[in-house]
Structure formats: structure tokens, C-alpha cells
Amino acid sequence: MGFDPGRINFAFGIYGEYGIGDHGDLEGIEEVVLLPYFRARLRRKLKRYLPDAVFIERYHMRPNSAGAIINMEIVNLMIGIVYEQCFRLHIPCYLITASMHKTWAHKNLNVPKKIIRQKKKEKEVFDLTLCPDYLGLPTEHEVDATNLARYGYEKLTFNKQEI
Fold first, then answer.
1. Which among 41, 79, 29, 87 has a CA at the least distance from the CA of 58?
2. How far apart are alpha carbons 41 and 144 in whole angstroms?
């Protein structure tokens, strides 16, 4: 099971032997006082699926982002709750950087590139949302969460590598 955390959108994706199992949005929180509700929703989701492992994208503050400090604080608290609930349910939990699972995808999946403009220059970048395996997923967050789950599944199942 993969999680792409966000204060508003806390996406999840399931990946296993038969491919994508499920995906969706767990719903984040706007204020710290709502953490108990997030904990309850997360626990229900973990108990429903009982994944072999959980992979969470490490949250990075984006420069020049409005409310970045508030987002970082709340999201890191939610990530802590994921760890706590996984510990209680005896589910291994791994914190993964975006570059780890996205670089793996670029090397192992058919990830197309798109052209973007940055500072008046065109640049070609990989776009996971255009990957044929993920075209049915409705949001970028669910794509990332599912890719995290797939990354973890492949690493643990086939490569027998430490994460």
C-alpha cells in the first residue's frame, strides 16, 4: 500500500500480484484538532486491506509555497500517525523519497516525457500521469501513491532488497 500525503489530499494506492488493486483519497485534515478523525479513517483503511507493507512518500516543503510551514507540520503529524497505526497492526512501514520511486519508475516502466517551460526555456521531463499503467487513475496524487505501492511491491517481492 502506498500513501502520497497531503494536507488536503492524502492519496492511497494498492498494488500487488494482480496489478493495481484499489486507489483513492483518504482525505487529509485542515487543522491539528482533526488528527483523531484522520487516525480513525486511516485505521479503518489499514484494517480493511491489511497490506504486507506500507510505503509513504516523504513530504518536502516546496519553495515559495503559501502555507508551506503549516502544511509540513500537519502532514508530518499524519505521517507519524501512519507509522503508529502500522506499528500497532504489525505492518512494516517505509518512508520513501519522491526521487527514489519516481527514478525507479523512469527506469522500469514506460513513462512518457512531456515538454514544460521553465524560465523561458523548454525542458523535457518524465510524467508518471501519462504512464500507460496509470492512465485510469484520476489524480496525480493517486498515481504517486500507486507508484509507491508498486515500487515497494517490486523491491520486496522480486529484488529482495532492503528498502
1. 79
2. 20
- Number of Cβ within a 10 Å radius of residue 6: 20
- The mean pLDDT of 109-115, rounded to a whole number, is 86
Q: Which residue has the cell 523512469?
A: 106
Q: Which residue has the higher pLDDT, 85 or 29?
A: 85
- Evaluated on CA atoms 111, 117, 119, 120, the torsion sign reads positive
- Of 33, 38, 48, the C-alpha closest to 5 is 38
User: What is the Cα–Cα distance from 52 to 67, expressed in whole angstroms?
Assistant: 35
The CATH architecture to which 2-109+140-159 belongs is 2-Layer Sandwich (3.30)
Helix, strand, coil shares of the chain as percentages rounded to 5?
Answer: 45, 20, 30
Residues 6+ apart with CB under 8 A from 114: 124, 125, 127, 130
Which pTM was predicted?
A: 0.88
Give the per-residue pLDDT at 7: 86
Closest CA to 56 of 82, 91, 20, 23: 82
